[in-house]
Amino acid sequence: MEIEHLIFSEGPQRVAPFSHAVRAGEYLFITGQMPTLKHDNTKLVEGGIEEQTHQVMNNLIDVLSCANSSLEKVIFARVYLVNFQDFERMNKVYSSYFKSDKLPGRTCIGVTGLAIGALVEIDFIAAA
Questions:
Q1: 95 by DSSP, 3-state: which?
Q2: Angle 16-41-86 (CA atoms, 0-180°, nearest 5)?
């Protein structure tokens, strides 16, 4: 199986040493995205869980687009939440990005902290 490590200069700035995505055969593994501003990985988008979830999804869309994929090809998502009291508000934003009959599989994990003080991080597995 061919494995391709993808780093995109036009993608969101990375907050650590990783590829934006890895293409392995027919699958695309999108690294967890943070709610950082696209061109400044030291700054979180202003606001709470709703704004952060929108920014994470927009960053994921950017990476998918750079990899010639899209939300329609997302197979599975993992959501990391610092505060599970944000679960319903995050879900409302998250689900607005998908067709209600085409939701990817998903796991939601409670964590004690995320890089740069984020409230949410999401990663994807998509069809390449």
A1: helix
A2: 95
Place of tokens 């988008």: 45
At 90 the pLDDT is 98
pLDDT digits (tens, 9 = 90+) for 21-55: 999 999 999 999 999 998 888 899 999 999 999 99
Would you say the C-alpha torsion 89, 48, 35, 116 has a positive or negative sign?
Answer: negative
CA–CA separation, 76 and 96 (whole Å): 16
92, 99 contact by CB (below 8 A): no
Please name the residue that has the structure tokens 């990663």: 123
In angstroms, the Cα distances linking 8 to 38, 65, 88, 99 are 12, 10, 32, 27
Residue type, 65: S
Phi first, then psi, for residue 77 (nearest 5°) are: -130, 150
Structure letter (DSSP) for residue 46: S
Q: Are 92 and 72 in contact (CB under 8 A)?
A: no
Instruction: Please tell me whether the overall predicted TM-score, pTM, comes out greater than 0.90 for this model.
Output: yes
